[in-house]
Amino acid sequence: MPVRARLTAVYGSLFFLTAGALVVINYFAVNKILYRRFTVRLPGAPLPDLPAGVPTGKAVLIQQFSKSELSSGDPGDTVFIRSVSDEVERFRQLVMDSMLQWSLLSTLLIGLFGLAVGWLVAKRALAPLHTVTETARTLSGSTLHERIALDGPRDEIRDLADTFDSMLERLDSAFDSQRRFVANASHELRTPLAINRALLQVSFADPDLPEQLRSVGAELLAANARQERLIDGLLLLAQTERELTTRESADLEDLAGAVVAAAPGRPPVRAHLAAAPVTGDPVLLERMIGNLVDNAAKYNDERGEVHIRSGGDGATSFVTVENTGPVVAPDQVAVLFEPFRRLGGDRTGSARGAGLGLSIVRAVATAHGGTAEARPRPGGGLVVTVRLPRAPAGSPALATPHGRALDPGPRLP
C-alpha cells in the first residue's frame, strides 16, 4: 500500500478504536446506573426509613422487589408492584437498545470521518515528499543545477530536502569539473595535433623523399587524423552534456536531407523523409544525424545498404537509420552506446573511428529531452531510432536548402 493509504488506515483505525472504547465504557456505565435498586411509595403504604436529608413530601426511591418479597405481601400490592417492575424493565431495555444502536451508528460515522480526515492530512503531510520525488525524477546530467529549495518548518522532511540539495550541489560540481576537464584537455590537445599534421605534410611534400619514408608519413598522418577525430568527438560529447543554450525550431526532415546530400555516396544512403518538427540546437541535431549515417556506412558489409527515415507519431518526432552489416547480438546493443566501445570488443585504435559516435547520439538526444534506442536487424545490421519531443503546432521550422524526399521507399528486406 502507498504511504498515504497506510497513514489513512492508521488514522481511521485510531478513530474506530477510540469510538469503540467509548461505546463499551458508556454501555456498562449506563447499564449500572439503570439497574440500581430504587423504591416508590405505594398509595397508603408507610414511608420506608429514608436517609437523612431526603425530603419526605416527594416521590422517593422505587425499590426493586425480589420474588420472595412479592409473594409475601398483599395480593393487590403484589400485582401492582409486578406491573410497575415490568414497565421499568421494558424502559431499561429500551434505553439500553437505543443507546447501543445510536452509539454504533456514531462510531461508524466518526470512523468514516476519521478516514476522510486521515486521507487529507496524509496528503498534506506527504506533499513535500512529492516535490522531492518530482525533482529527482526530472534530474539529468544537464539539470543538476536545479534545487528543491523546500519551504516550511524545520522538520524531518525539510532536513531530507536540504540534504538532497547538498547532494545535488556536490554532484553538479563533480559533473561540471569533469566537463571542464574534458573540454580543456581537448582544446589543449588540438593545437599540438594540428602542428604535427602541418609538419608532417610539409616534411613529406619533398619530392626527393624516399618511398619508405612516404609510407611511414602516410601512417603518421592517418594516426594523427584518428586522434583529431577523437578530440573532436570528446569536445562534442562534453558540449552535449551541458545544458542547451540554443533552442530554435528545426525539422529533422531538413536536417537529415542536408546530411544525405553531404554523404560521400558509398554506400548510397536512401532517404525516406517526412516532416518531423522539433525544438533545439540545429547544429547538434545535424551532427547527431551525421553520426548515425557515418556509423551505418562504416559498419556495413558487402550489401552496402543504408536507409534513413524521419517522421512523427503523436507527441514525438523521430529519425531512424537502418543498415546492413554483421549480426549484432541483443545483449551487445546497450554496450554500443558507451564511449570508446564497438562491436566485437574493438576499442580505440581502429581506423573506423574513436568509438564515440553512438555516445554522442545519445548525449544529443538526452540534451533535447529525447531518447536514442537501437535494436538488431534480422539478417544483420542495426536499426537506431532517435525520438525527440515534437515541436508545438504552428512553430516555424528551420529552413534548409534541401528539398523533401517524397518517395517513402521500401524497407530493407
UniProtKB/TrEMBL annotation:
UniProt keyword Zinc-finger present? no
Give a Pfam family name: HAMP
Residues covered by region (Disordered): 392-413
Q: What is this organism's lineage?
A: Bacteria, Bacillati, Actinomycetota, Actinomycetes, Streptosporangiales
Q: Name one GO molecular function term.
A: kinase activity
- Which key words are in the record? Kinase, Membrane, Phosphoprotein, Transferase, Transmembrane, Transmembrane helix, Two-component regulatory system
Q: Which reaction does it catalyse?
A: ATP + protein L-histidine = ADP + protein N-phospho-L-histidine
PROSITE patterns, sorted: HAMP (PS50885), HIS_KIN (PS50109)
TM spans (from-to): 6-29, 100-122
**Chain ranges of the HAMP domain:** 123-176
Compartments, as annotated in UniProt: Cell membrane
Q: What is the designated name of this protein?
A: histidine kinase
| Stored CDD domains | HAMP, HATPase, HisKA
Which ranges carry the Histidine kinase domain?
A: 184-392
Catalytic activity, EC: 2.7.13.3
Q: Does the keyword Membrane apply?
A: yes
Q: Which PANTHER family match?
A: SENSOR HISTIDINE KINASE TRCS (PTHR45436:SF5), SENSOR HISTIDINE KINASE YKOH (PTHR45436)
